TrEMBL record:
<feature type="active site" description="Schiff-base intermediate with substrate; via pyruvic acid">
    <location>
        <position position="25"/>
    </location>
</feature>
<comment type="similarity">
    <text>Belongs to the PanD family.</text>
</comment>
<keyword id="KW-0566">Pantothenate biosynthesis</keyword>
<dbReference type="Pfam" id="PF02261">
    <property type="entry name" value="Asp_decarbox"/>
</dbReference>
<keyword id="KW-0670">Pyruvate</keyword>
<keyword id="KW-0704">Schiff base</keyword>
<dbReference type="InterPro" id="IPR009010">
    <property type="entry name" value="Asp_de-COase-like_dom_sf"/>
</dbReference>
<feature type="binding site">
    <location>
        <position position="57"/>
    </location>
    <ligand>
        <name>substrate</name>
    </ligand>
</feature>
<keyword id="KW-0210">Decarboxylase</keyword>
<keyword id="KW-0963">Cytoplasm</keyword>
<keyword id="KW-0865">Zymogen</keyword>
<comment type="pathway">
    <text>Cofactor biosynthesis; (R)-pantothenate biosynthesis; beta-alanine from L-aspartate: step 1/1.</text>
</comment>
<dbReference type="GO" id="GO:0006523">
    <property type="term" value="P:alanine biosynthetic process"/>
</dbReference>
<keyword id="KW-0068">Autocatalytic cleavage</keyword>
<feature type="active site" description="Proton donor">
    <location>
        <position position="58"/>
    </location>
</feature>
<feature type="modified residue" description="Pyruvic acid (Ser)">
    <location>
        <position position="25"/>
    </location>
</feature>
<comment type="subunit">
    <text>Heterooctamer of four alpha and four beta subunits.</text>
</comment>
């Protein structure tokens, strides 16, 4: 049997932009993606702490050391600049593997989304 567990989490990042006219996705500073072990095109669950919205999209890398967190396409309607998000990815694995697995948890600076 396989179960789905948290693979990575970027905890409490601030939305820097919302681009309704872009073709879907979330743009994430590539340094944050690397730290959280998130790859280009990976499905990401987004939890908006400001309004309770939960949605899924896919990750695309943004410029390194930019702190960029931009929701693109229809997802842009679910956030506002300055909202605080939690970004989560999941992985399927056998139960015994899951018991030993340690997710990548990232806690960036909440003011600028950069790694400390």
């Amino acid at each position: 049997m396989q179960i789905e567990v948290v693979k990575s989490k970027i905890h409490r990042v601030k939305v820097t932009g919302a681009d309704l006219n872009y073709i879907g996705s979330i743009t994430i500073d590539e340094d944050l993606m690397d730290a959280a072990n998130i790859i280009r095109g990976e499905k990401v669950q987004i939890v908006n702490n400001n309004n309770g919205e939960r949605l899924e999209t896919y990750a695309i890398p943004g410029p390194r050391k930019s702190g960029e967190i931009t929701l693109n396409g229809a997802a842009a309607r679910k956030v506002a600049a300055g909202d605080i998000l939690i970004l989560i990815t999941y992985a399927r694995m056998d139960i015994e593997e899951a018991k030993k697995f340690n997710p990548s948890l990232v806690f960036p600076n909440e003011e600028n989304n950069l790694l400390n």
